[in-house]
Amino acid sequence: MFLLPVSWSFFLLLLVDVSLASPTAKASIQARASITALTSAQIAAYKPYTYYASTAYCAPSTTINWSCGSNCEANPSFVPVASGGDGDGTQYWFVGYDATLKSVIVSHQGTDTSEILSVITDIEFSQKAIDTTLFTGVSSSVKVHTGFEDEQAKTASAVLSAVKTTMSAHSTTTITTVGHSLGAAISLLDALYLSIQIPSATTNFIGYGLPRVGNQAFADLMDSKFPNLAHINNKEDMVPIVPGELLGYVHPSGEKHILDNSTWVACPGQDNDSTECSTGDVPTIFNGDIDDHIGPYDGVSMGC
Ligand SMILES: *[C@@H]1O[C@H](CO)[C@@H](O)[C@H](O)[C@H]1NC(C)=O
Ligand SMILES: *[C@@H]1O[C@H](CO)[C@@H](O)[C@H](O)[C@H]1NC(C)=O
Ligand SMILES: *[C@@H]1O[C@H](CO)[C@@H](O)[C@H](O)[C@H]1NC(C)=O
């Protein structure tokens, strides 16, 4: 554990959440499904995507020829198509084809926990209507975190072009976007962006330690477009509970929560407040454990 260089606004945000935290009306709109444990086969099926999320922490010079070491070796059938970013102003990213999954893979690099908390609580943490230049036709009621949208916009056209190249080279119409932390937020927006720009494709998102990215209309839109979306949260990681619900942020459905005994459970609905799911298990970041952010996710800790 170490002290986080989090900003003032972040603590302000927390205090608001603490003082106003109470059961809300949203419970009534949650799905009436039960919280169920995943089988070991279901957990294992996520493993290649977990490695792809982790691989985005590797430098582009090593993902472009798949020479990044153990992360790359974990997915030996991958064919890289494009890599980019500088890991500073622009997070690393890569695009290519997995011949076993028969899917285009898009992955974006995340950040360490203290950095993601600063990004989230930056002056730019306010929501704005989604940019309809990139997200053509999306309603102006759909609002997203300004900082996350800015990050996604930096690589949007390069990623789109690489995805189109990969689709035609490998005759596939399946796209999976993955990522951890900030990388998950970027890839969640990429999933929406790619599904709009390439409507003939079947797109899905699998993310790890995903912060909240947008408002209720955004979460509802994601639920309607991506029924198989999955965001996997490890134990008491606090990143998935920020920015706070009281600031108008809502997760799409599809949470998988790793319990303290390493059981994975599927949490129905958006922000299920059961203590078996992140929102209920980590009511404020004071209940969180920063060390849980990087994993392990079924044995995989994020990083190159
Ligand atoms: C959470 O999941 C349970 C199933 O165990 C469900 O009954 C409940 O409505 C869901 N939503 C909330 C907000 O807890
Ligand atoms: C991959 O590219 C890097 C940087 O260009 C180079 O140093 C390395 O030898 C290459 N590795 C393989 C396996 O091609
Ligand atoms: C793990 O913990 C959950 C919640 O406390 C419990 O329901 C489940 O039975 C436990 N599973 C194992 C394998 O211990």
Automatic annotation (TrEMBL):
Keywords: Disulfide bond, Signal. Belongs to the AB hydrolase superfamily. Lipase family. Class 3 subfamily. This is Lipase class 3 family protein. It comes from Lentinula raphanica. It holds the Pfam family Lipase_3. It comes from the Eukaryota. It catalyses: a diacylglycerol + H2O = a monoacylglycerol + a fatty acid + H(+); a monoacylglycerol + H2O = glycerol + a fatty acid + H(+). Residues 1-21 form the signal peptide. Residues 106-245 form the Fungal lipase-type domain. GO terms for biological process: lipid metabolic process. InterPro entries: AB_hydrolase_fold, Fungal_lipase-type, Sec_MonoDiacylglyc_Lipase. SUPFAM superfamilies: alpha/beta-Hydrolases (SSF53474).
